[in-house]
Amino acid sequence: MLRYALKRLLSLTISLIIASIVIFAVIEVIPGDVVRQILGEAYREDTAAALRTELGLDGGPVSRYFSWVTGMLTGDFGTSYTYRTPVADLISDRIGVSLPLAIYALVLSTLIAFPAGIYAASRRGGAGDVTVMGLTQLGVAIPNFWFAMIMVLVFAINLRWFPSGGFPGWDKGFWVSMKALTLPAIALALPQAAILARVMRSSLLDMLGEDFMRTARAKGLTRRQALWRHGVRNALIPVLTIIGLQFAFLLAGGIIIEQVFYLPGLGRLIFQAISARDLIVVESVVMLLVFLVILVNFTVDLAYAAVDPRLRSRA
Amino acid sequence: MSLLEVENLTLSIGETAILRDVELTVEAGQISAITGESGSGKSMTALAIMGLLPRGAQASGRVVLDGVDILATPENTLCQMRGNDMGMVFQEPMTALNPVQTIGDQVAEAILIHTQSTRADARRQAEQTLKRVGLPPDRFPLTRYPHELSGGQRQRVVIAMAIALRPKLLIADEPTTALDVTTQAQILELLKELVVEFNMGLLMITHDLAVVADFADQIVVMKHGDVVEHGATGHLLRHMTHPYTKALFAASAHAVDLPPRPDPAPLLQVQNVVRDYPTPRKSLLGPAGKFRAVDDVSFELQRGERLGLVGESGCGKSTLTRAILGLEPVQGGQITLDGASVFSGKKPNLDIRRKMQVVFQDPYGSFNPRHRVDRLVTEPFHLLPEPPVGADRDARIARALSDVGLSPGDSTKYIHEFSGGQRQRIAIARALIIEPALIVFDEAVSALDVSVRAQVLDLIADLCRKRPLSYLFISHDLSVVRVVTDRVLVMKAGKIVEQGATEDVFTNPQHPYTAQLIAAAPVLPDLTAEALS
Amino acid sequence: MKGLWLGIVISVIVIALAVISFVWTPYDIQVLDVPNKLHPPDATNLLGTDHFGRDILSMIMLGARTSIAVALVAVGIGMAIGVPLGLWAAARRGSLLDEVIMRGNDLIFAFPSLVIAILITAVFGPSAVNAIIAIGIFNIPVFARLTRGAALSLWERDFILAARVCGKSAFRISWEHILPNITNLMIVQGTIQFSLGILAEAALSYVGLGAQPPTASWGRMLADAQTLVTLAPHVALVPGLAIVVTVLGLNLMGDGLRDRLDPRVRADRT
Questions:
Q1: pLDDT grade, residue A315 (50/70/90)?
Q2: Distance in angstroms (rounded) separating the CA atoms of residues B249 and B446
Q3: Over the stretch B226-269, which tens digit does the pLDDT of each residue have?
């Protein structure tokens, strides 16, 4: 088990290194001169030189890369050109919105998808199955940001159950903040829940065809007992992969949903940075997102080993 | 009254009739065997008795276990009976256990769902049961996972689950088909002991007539959903009445008529061949380990010789085959055909390849489903410097197909239009079409029903008469190797432990392992010509 | 099979609308008619007008063109690069090359297409081409993994061994034996990725990382509609429903094709 974890950790590190090189290359090397890129029309030799020093952009690409990476490792993400404040401060403010939103959505998605998928599988071919599958078919087809707009119209503007946008801040109270995140989280979660429910169902149905399910029935378990005691845990193995992938989508999708609800998260930060050509901020936020996704995949790999004893002993 | 009485069991799935008026009985403390070829409905009969029929199956008639008609019993009562009054063992032990649960939990579950015992009691009882089936807790603790056990050991776990509550009836569906002969013998012995010890009825489903004759008290012969004959074993073997039963036993004991072999001249030489596979590293940065699958193997195959290679799974026979065919490089030694090496440098030698062809085991996986027969059988033309075209090509396709007993017109069909036996004939046609010096038969008849197998073996003998055919016949089935080879090699753990003329080896084995293999293989009793007439 | 036909009908209608838009739309959307803005659907404007008084039906037709073009090219990129990579990795299974290709794929999975689009836009500015590249790159590992997985199980089959015994190279075997046997799988996955591409294009255009004005795009229409949703709900409803119906149709078609072409069922039938 320890060897398995170490191996995964090694591959996580390699992925992070390569990802950081790719991001650095796209932002700072491919466009040529970052400062020219940032200043655009306003480019003048003297301001450029000053800005270059201020942002720590003098030196060759290799030395700049290493100072960027070592900076990040010590919590120094550089300085924002537009805000003139450390990027680390900007990020730590915004992530307090984006990360809880993604987790909230993941929890919702799982809570909806597991029962729905298991229910549909246990009623295979029946009216319940057809209904659930029809709903998931619809859920997969709905763009989450449009769904969000419709929900704002119905639940915020007409019914006034939830705020239509904005975020009070966690210091204003936990429940108020959660309330502000609820519509965004539902909008994010529903399409993902639809996908997850479909995967859960088909994975369970695959399990129903397995020999060990027949063995369980021969022992005297009812169909339902066999499904719960032997099917679900085995079916979790492919479902975990999807959950891992979904977290990536939820983080990225969150960026879009933040636009609908005017939430001060990483999404708004990154779009403001793009329009202000604040490349240092874009670079750091993208790196952070990729880091989170890779970290989640690492966790999923560990979860695999917890579910599947074959992985623990092989590795 | 018998323990189990099946009367007029008729079964259909949708429009398809599966079983017609099946009748059979099982007595307590006795073994009844259902035998027959694929499609005879023997497994469905077993599932009907367990009440585990697939959805959409319509059954009528009576299946009475100890006074209870199973077909008339509601599902929740059946759940209480399964595992309690009746247990079942399946064919494929590798997949019959839940891979993510320990063996202890899986056996204990069978006890927990039917009794009021505590978890600790159930585990103790599971431990006792596992010990009884030959998995003592000191070597096989309850915390083992299925993947840590061999096929035979897993089958013992499945048996333990089925007998944990001492059911009155045990159904075993091809319980040893997936196992090696020595393991098969041990499992059959275990089942036999349990029948006596628990005074349990055992209904055994098997296609292997040698096992049936050896093992069962009662025999039921099925064909296409009908019981064609049944009776006490001794009586039935002496007085078969139905022609199908006779044909079945005759095919199982089929002897082929091999022509005498020509004078020896060396064809294939295998010298000190070693094949290693890398194994996962023991530590994170340590060197990769290696597993020696073929260990210093040497033998010769003469022109016109029919050589057999027998051994149990994992002995290295498949690896050796791949090395001979030039599909994988070897780490030591040399393989030469007609004096030239099969592998030259890192590349396989095409000049040598065209002198060899192969016939594989699985008639369903041996052909690209998207190609027509003419394209399939001419694939080896790729090895020729100037492949025949036009009329010449058609003539060679026609000849190859006629040689194996198919019609030239079959060349425009797709492979799904043929039965398993016909597909093996097409595989032989594909191997013959470039007239290779050596054919490798890799378990080529192992997946076939006995009657089809007999026909394919006859075809091989027939081909030997028409042309000087040299082949290497690889099989785990000793009885088949015995009838189609002149000489035999016995392989164990990567080494050839014995080789010699086939009859000598079978009648007077020199190596203890060979003796053990031969002793473990069930044999058909010598049926008199009278019994089969 | 009802789903399959419904899916095909919907897909054909959407494609037809996009094709017709090349020669005819009910109104010219270049012409602004501000006095007639936010008109609800009626006989003159079947789907109403937007905040510039443009005919929404015409914009939907032109938007279908953008959506289909972006998704189609993105699937094409994913297939053209992913399938050969997957075949190559499977042909060299267990080698360092296989490992490198698969790890590379894992790495791309860590960059959701939105993130790729953000990176490209930050450097080169927004455009529909960005959306194509971003979605296309993300499609590569999808096809590579699927191809490799299917190819690996085929490589274990005896008919591939027979071809190897006949001296055929890995390249030739991949082309002659593997590829024809995974086409169905690719068609099914292609349909699914196509519908995901339409959703992704809409999302990217919505946040301004995709198609730019004056190119019509369903995502952009929704972005424009966001502040008007209380005044004229149809401006937000129509493009959204267009997306939902199109994606639903494609998914129904994909599922139907899967049932009909399932390689597991088909392996022995044809």
A1: very low
A2: 17
A3: 999 999 998 998 888 899 999 888 888 888 888 887 777 888 99
Contact B426, B226 (CB under 8 A): no
B3, pLDDT greater than 50: yes
The minimal CB distance from B82 to the residues A219, A309, A313 is found for A219
User: Which band of pLDDT confidence, cut at 50, 70 and 90, is reported for residue B285?
Assistant: low
Given a cut of 60, whether residue A263 has pLDDT beyond it is: yes
What stretches of B323-446 adopt beta strand conformation (E)?
Answer: 332-337, 340-341, 343-344, 347-348, 356-359, 438-442
Q: How far is A285 from chain C (nearest CA, A)?
A: 10
Question: For residue A109, what are its two tokens?
Answer: 């998605």
- Cβ distance A286 to C233 less than 8 Å, yes or no, reads no
pLDDT in tens, B435-457: 899 999 999 888 888 889 999 99
Give mean pLDDT, residues A71-87: 82
Beta strands in A86-154 (DSSP E): none
**Dist. CA B333–CA A136, nearest whole Å:** 61
Q: Do C207 and A255 touch (CB under 8 A)?
A: yes
Collect all residues from B whose CB is shorter than 8 A from any CB in A. Answer: 50, 52, 75-76, 79-84, 87-88, 90, 92, 95-101, 109-110, 113-114, 145, 147-148, 158, 161-162, 280, 283-284
Q: Do C112 and A271 touch (CB under 8 A)?
A: no
Range list for CATH 1.10.3720.10 in chain A: 88-314
**Nearest chain A residue (CA) to C196:** A141
Q: What is the dihedral of CA B502, B503, B507, B508, to 10 degrees?
A: -60
Residue C268 has pLDDT above 50, yes or no: no
Residue B169 has φ and ψ, to the nearest 5°, of -130, 135
What ipTM was estimated for this complex?
0.85
Q: Residue C215: which residues within 8 A CB-CB, separation 6 or more?
A: C62, C66, C128
Rounded to the nearest angstrom, the minimum Cα separation between B106 and chain A is 9
CB contact under 8 A, C110 and A294: yes
A4-59 confidence digits (pLDDT tens): 888 888 888 998 999 999 888 888 777 666 677 677 777 777 777 777 777 767 77
Chains touching B, CB cut-off 8 Å, 3+ pairs: A, C
pLDDT in tens, B149-200: 988 999 999 999 999 999 999 999 999 888 888 899 999 999 999 999 999 9
Nearest CB among A19, A153, A279 relative to C110 is that of: A19
What's the pLDDT band for C263 if we cut at 50, 70, 90? very low
Domain coordinates of chain C in residue numbers?
2-269
Q: Does B362 touch chain C (CB under 8 A)?
A: yes
Tell me the whole-structure pTM to 2 decimals: 0.84
The CATH number corresponding to A88-314 among 1.10.10.10, 3.50.50.60, 1.20.1260.10, 1.10.3720.10 equals 1.10.3720.10
Helices assigned H by DSSP within C92-178 = 96-109, 113-124, 128-155, 158-165, 170-173
Interface partners of C (3+ CB pairs, < 8 Å)? A, B
CATH class of C2-269: mainly alpha
pLDDT of residue B397: 94
3-state per-residue secondary structure call for B218-259: EEEEEECCEEEEEEEHHHHHHCCCCHHHHHHHHHHCCCCCCC
Nearest Cα neighbor of C71 from C124, C136, C168, C144 is: C136
Nearest by CB to B96, from A211, A220, A307: name it.
A211
Residues of C with CB under 8 A from a CB of A: 103, 106-107, 109-115, 118-124, 195, 199, 202-203, 206-208, 219, 222, 225-226, 229-230, 233, 236-237, 239-240, 243-245, 247-248, 251-252, 255
Rounded to 5 degrees, what are φ and ψ at B207?
-95, -10
Which one of C6, C105, C111, C264 makes the best mutation probe of the A interface by having the most chain A beta carbons within 10 Å? C111
